[in-house]
TrEMBL record:
This is Uncharacterized protein. It comes from Actinoplanes subglobosus.
Length: 155
């Protein structure tokens, strides 16, 4: 469990106590690198990926959310975000980490089922478990006094 940190960060006119990131979160840097490479190798998304934003119910959305390559591309973007916030010294908040871990869990389970290479599929599942553990470790950080229900900033 993360211990409160004595450093403070300006947040508007108030000071916010920072909490150290849990070890499981800091260890995700290598996990996210490997996940990204596995997804890229098995789904081959383009280096740049775009999606339909013409309307909220754009007909292309149905095709995008059911296409494994598109799901892999969206997932890879979330992996990039988690990679960034897992970095030592990169400030984030517990809710961001927990949200990314939850979103990735769903996507990675789905994508692992589409990977024909059993060893690679199993590796995605194993790396996903590390993402889940980091999310769980982050969710166990107790809020500071008077911070129940507030964002818990991490450093």
């Amino acid at each position: 469990m993360a211990a409160p940190d004595e450093r403070h960060s300006p947040a508007g006119d108030t000071e916010v106590s920072l909490v150290s990131k849990p070890r499981e979160l800091l260890e995700l840097r290598k996990v996210t690198e490997e996940l990204f490479q596995l997804l890229k190798a098995h789904f081959h998304p383009a280096d740049r990926f775009t999606f339909a934003l013409a309307t909220v119910d754009d007909p292309e959305v149905v095709a995008e959310i059911t296409d494994p390559v598109a799901v892999a591309a969206f997932t890879m973007r979330k992996v990039q975000a988690l990679h960034r916030v897992a970095g030592d010294g990169v400030r984030t908040s517990a809710d961001v980490v927990i949200g990314l871990a939850a979103e990735l869990n769903r996507s990675l389970v789905e994508l692992a089922a589409h990977v024909e290479d059993v060893a690679a599929s199993n590796r995605i599942v194993a790396l996903n478990k590390k993402v889940i553990l980091a999310g769980l470790a982050t969710s166990r950080i107790p809020p500071g006094e008077g911070q129940a229900g507030k964002v818990i900033p991490l450093d």
